[in-house]
Automatic annotation (TrEMBL):
It holds the Pfam family Glyco_transf_4. This is Glycosyltransferase family 4 protein. Signal peptide: none annotated. InterPro entries: Glyco_trans_1, Glyco_trans_4-like_N. It comes from Paenibacillus solanacearum. Residues 28-118 form the Glycosyltransferase subfamily 4-like N-terminal domain. GO terms for molecular function: glycosyltransferase activity. Residues 156-280 form the Glycosyl transferase family domain.
């Protein structure tokens, strides 16, 4: 059987004056996914160039963005610095800067967040996201994580965990309510993205309840420790969640996730439908019951569906399909 040709791939991620280099330390689900995908592609022998924030550490050819190159300026910079003989560009930028341009090189665009504009080869991070955002048009690839980066533990502590951006749409107030009603400890970990919400609605409840504590944005060993020893992760998301990376991060550590059934949550949690709730009241009952799947079952589930290797397999199939289609179209036009 003929071996598949190794590809020359360009990966492009959004840039901003405060953009974090890869790999991310304390936050950044998209950044983590792009980093792991890039590393795995290089490990498999593909030639990869990565456009990302200055300071990025990668096995790929690193092409750092100057701080002022943001938004639509990314297109011009990438075209000026484009390596030779590129087979495909993978655009992870929030406005799909390269995907919206008419380039001679095929472009695949992953919609990590909801976007309204259309591109030729959209990829969504769940079937639900493809249906809601793309009308079932395009591809979907589940986000994946590297199992070696996560510590597993069957020994759990006595605290509930909320890990994510401190925003109303992420369900932070609902997580606090669950902790109050169950009289359990709650650790809140994540960057504060709405300071008014934090100071007016969260701080007073923390002051009135010694069981609730904000521990800040976390990464590395501290994040690992919080995830692997939590009694459960609370994921009461209120918005049309495209994926929810922290759910699989918790489960691969052996920690159960009690979540609201918004967005792609039922899809990501398909192996454990009993943990997906229709209301906060149901979440409270589930936490109070203390009946959760075995930690090893949670880990096995993630290993079967949501690894970097599986994500990379899927993206490579899409790359080759898009390249073949472009080559066929070009050959037809040349007749």
């Amino acid at each position: 059987m003929k071996k598949a040709k190794k590809l020359n791939i360009v990966q492009v991620i959004s840039n901003a004056p405060d953009a974090n280099p890869l790999p991310p330390t304390n936050q950044g689900g998209t950044e983590k996914v792009v980093y792991e995908l890039t590393q795995e592609l290089v490990r498999r022998g593909h030639r990869v160039s990565l456009f990302a924030a200055r300071g990025t550490r990668t096995r790929a050819r690193d092409i750092p963005f100057p701080k002022q190159v943001t938004g639509d300026r990314i297109l011009g910079f990438v075209l000026r610095k484009m390596p030779r003989k590129v087979d495909i560009i993978h655009d992870h930028t929030f406005p799909s800067t390269l995907g919206r341009a008419k380039l001679p090189i095929p472009v695949v665009c992953t919609y990590h967040l909801p976007m309204k504009h259309r591109v030729s080869n959209p990829v969504y991070v769940s079937k639900r996201a493809r249906k809601v955002m793309g009308g079932n048009r395009g591809y979907y690839v589940y986000n994946g994580i590297n199992p070696k980066e996560y510590e597993f533990s069957e020994r759990k502590g006595d605290y509930l965990l909320f890990m994510g951006r401190v925003l109303e749409e992420k369900g932070i107030l609902q997580a606090i309510h669950i902790a109050e009603r169950t009289n359990k400890k709650l650790l809140i970990a994540g960057p504060i993205k709405d300071f008014a919400l934090y100071t007016k609605k969260i701080v007073p409840r923390i002051r009135n309840n010694p069981n609730i504590k904000y521990v800040g944005a976390v990464g590395g060993k501290r994040k690992q420790k919080l995830l692997k020893h939590a009694k459960c992760l609370l994921f009461p998301t209120l918005w049309e969640e495209p994926f929810g990376l922290v759910m699989i991060e918790a489960m691969i550590c052996g920690t159960p996730v009690v979540a609201l059934n918004n967005g792609a949550v039922p899809e990501v949690m398909a192996g454990f439908p009993g943990l997906v709730c229709k209301s906060v009241k149901e979440m409270i009952r589930k936490v109070q019951s203390g009946r959760f799947p075995a930690p090893r079952a949670l880990r096995r589930y993630v290993l079967s569906r949501f690894t970097t290797a599986k994500m990379t397999d899927r993206y490579l199939k899409i790359y080759r399909r898009v390249i073949t289609r472009r080559n066929s179209k070009t050959a037809f036009l040349r007749r």
